[in-house]
Predict the structure.
Amino acid sequence: MHIRNEATSDAAGISSVIERAFSGKSFSSGTEHFIVPALHGAGALTVSLVAARAHEVVGHVAFSPVIISDGAQHWYGLGPLAVEPALHGRGIGSALVKAGLARLRAFGAAGCVVLGEPAYYGRFGFRSVSGLLYPGPPPEYFMAQSFSGALPRGEVAFHAAFAIKPNPSIERTCPGKPGHAAHVKR
C-alpha cells in the first residue's frame, strides 16, 4: 500500500470507496461521497490523500479549512476518512490520518478538528476541548488537536460542502454511484 496525494484520475475511485465505506452506517447521511467533489469545486480541499494498492484507491482522507467563531486562523477539519470495508483493521485509515496531519503541520497549520469516534481519533492526539463547540452531535464526538499549543474557543463550522444534498447532476459527475467508513468519521 502506498499513501500519496490524490491525482485527478483518482476521482472515481475516491467517490466509490467513500460511498462503500459509509454505506449502511447509522451515522451516515448518504451524501459523504459528494463532499470531496464539492470541496474540489469550491477550491477548499487543502489536503487530499489516497491509499493505493496496485493503482487502485483503497482509502482516502480529506482536510479542509474550518471557521471558528473566535476568529482563530489556520485550523482545518479532518473528513471524510474512508477505507475499503474489506480492508478495515489493517492500519490504512491510521496511515492516512498520520500522513495528513503531518502535511498540515508541515505547512504551518494551527490545528485540526474532527467529528468522530473518540477511541479512534484519540490515538492521534485528538481530544474534546471545553469551549470549542460543534452544534448537534454529543460533544464528546467533536475533538481538536492544536499544533501550536493554543486552543481556540467558540463554535466551529465545516465547509458548506459537508451539508451537500443529493443532486442528480452531481451524481452524474461522481462515477461509482450505485455501488465513506472503514474508519469514516467526519
User: Anything to note?
Assistant: Strands lie at 2-5, 47-53, 56-65, 67-68, 75-83, 111-115, 132-133, 142-146, 154-157. The first helix runs from residue 11 to 22. The longest strand covers residues 56-65. The mean pLDDT is 87.
